[in-house]
Amino acid sequence: MKAFTDLHLKTYLSLLIMVLFGPLGNVLLGKGMKRIGAVAIRTPAELIHTLLLVFSSSVIWLGIASLITFFITYMLVLSWADYSYVQPASSIAYGVVALLGHFLLKEVITPTRWLGVLVICLGVFIVSGTPPRTTEQV
Description:
Layout: H1 2-36, H2 44-55, H3 58-80, H4 83-89, H5 93-103, H6 111-128
């Protein structure tokens, strides 16, 4: 019984990390690229200049670090739980994306979009009632 509880705890904590760091990384990358502005690469010199701008941005590096954290956690949680559980359960990140977009990027989120996020969150609630692992551990 303890192994079952430990599996749930580490799976839920990992999903929480994924749900926070995936959207945060994407929002930070978006914010960093908006600061750089529209990118037009027509010559090798423009490419080098753009790369220097991108990789000298601390916001972009924070985004990259957040996405690496998400990716490592995603790999770990897939080793503990079924993909058919992890993917839908991690979809709550769409709600986090809307919140971060609204508060950090100052985007307007329409009521229709909020309704869509609510429907996704209801689906996550339904999936969370199922066991994370239905297959035997190898």
